[in-house]
Amino acid sequence: MKREIFSLLMNIKNEVLKAIYGPDKITKLVDSEMGAVVVKEPQSNPEDEQSPIDSKFKTLLRGGDEVVHISPETRYFEVTDGGMGRRVAYTISGNLNAKKVLLCLPGLLETKASFMLLHSYFLKFEECLVISIDLSGRGESDSMGDREAYKMSLYLADISQLIREVIFREKVGRAPKLTVLGTSMGGVLAMHLTKIFDGKIAGIILNDIALTVNWTSLYSLYKSMKNEAGFKEVRELAKDLSVDERAIRDVQLPGHFDLSFRADIWGMNFHEALEGYSGKVGLVYGGKSQICTKQRVEEAKEFFPKLKLYEVPDSGHPAPFNIGVCGFIQSEMNI
Q: What is the spatial distance between Cα 101 and Cα 211, in angstroms, rounded to a whole number?
């Protein structure tokens, strides 16, 4: 039934495009349960139609740029640890040849599924590509097994590989304008990426995390997570969250956060990760957040006078990706 409904919708879309562009310019393509209806200008030489990324999604040329538009689909890249390979999953959607790229990093116990509204929202823009990642041991990415502990530096290395091999690899001569969106501790990863890719990240958007996180806030968050989990066994909680059991245990260990930060009596400070960064910085925060409090928002504004803010008034931690937040992200990317 799901397949039949999907095929029906794709047929309807195909007919609409035929009415707009003419039947001689339309090619219908369906891939697994994700697909794309694309518009092609007739070519005299079929060999010239080979796309540098994926030929089955070639579409109409506009202003000299190919529009290679796809619906959200899951892909993988391979990471090798000590001679053993593991797959890291990511969802990709939009124009594969777009210059503007949005990379979405989830919170520590979230998956890329939390960004599906963003994928849907940005599909209407031809100049944008959206990528969201499952950190190792989450969602559709492989678990670490017994090879290595889960830790922030591991996630940072995996994301860096994704940027080099997926985002920058096919963009020789036309570097993408990359914006990194990070939820909660995913925002900390975004900050550290600005050091690794000096000058290559156009902007970062932080979801409910500022430059300082209070120890008391972290304790409150941990306590609320424990209360929400109730008496669930780790195995049951892992299944509910689509997270590896050991990842849930490891995030609670002191060694899990192994990236640089400055500690004081108030909490963890991440200012040095953004020192010297000249790109755009945006901050989305919940009006009732215990992590990104009004005090921490004001301090971030002092550190970045050009900081753009968007408050979700009745939200806690993290802020939801509602239409207003999507519009703010769109504005930050100048789309």
A: 24
